[in-house]
């Protein structure tokens, strides 16, 4: 399990999609959990089809958190190691209230 700062409430279980840069956007599958080091406004179009957001850095006022709340999707920030621990396609559960990311078997 990873812990971070829950910044947008809700619980979602879905496959992860780890993206390192905008060059990876083509590999994003709608309904996936977007996992990234952080996001910028260039990432905003992905939020409409993401089921949740998990980042290595960020807080309640970060771009990722603000946009996740606007879209009403769970978000966990500041996990520090999500992009190095989670693999694309891996089923994870994101709890935006508790600030946790669990790995489903």
From TrEMBL:
Top-level division of the source organism's lineage: Bacteria
Gene3D superfamilies documented for this protein: Phosphohistidine domain
Pfam families to which the protein is assigned, alphabetical: PEP-utilizers (PF00391)
Ranges for domain PEP-utilising enzyme mobile: 28-99
Single annotated GO MF: kinase activity
Protein name per its UniProtKB record: PEP-utilizing kinase
Alphabetical UniProt keywords: Kinase, Transferase
């Amino acid at each position: 399990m990873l812990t971070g700062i829950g910044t947008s409430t809700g619980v979602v279980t879905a496959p992860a999609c780890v993206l390192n840069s905008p060059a990876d956007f083509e590999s994003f599958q709608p309904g996936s959990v977007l996992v990234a080091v952080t996001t910028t406004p260039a990432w905003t179009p992905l939020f409409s089809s993401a089921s949740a957001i998990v980042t290595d850095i960020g807080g309640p006022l970060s771009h990722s958190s603000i946009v996740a709340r606007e879209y009403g999707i769970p978000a966990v920030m500041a996990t520090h190691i999500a992009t190095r621990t989670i693999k694309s396609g891996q089923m994870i559960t994101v709890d935006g209230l508790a600030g946790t990311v669990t790995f489903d078997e």
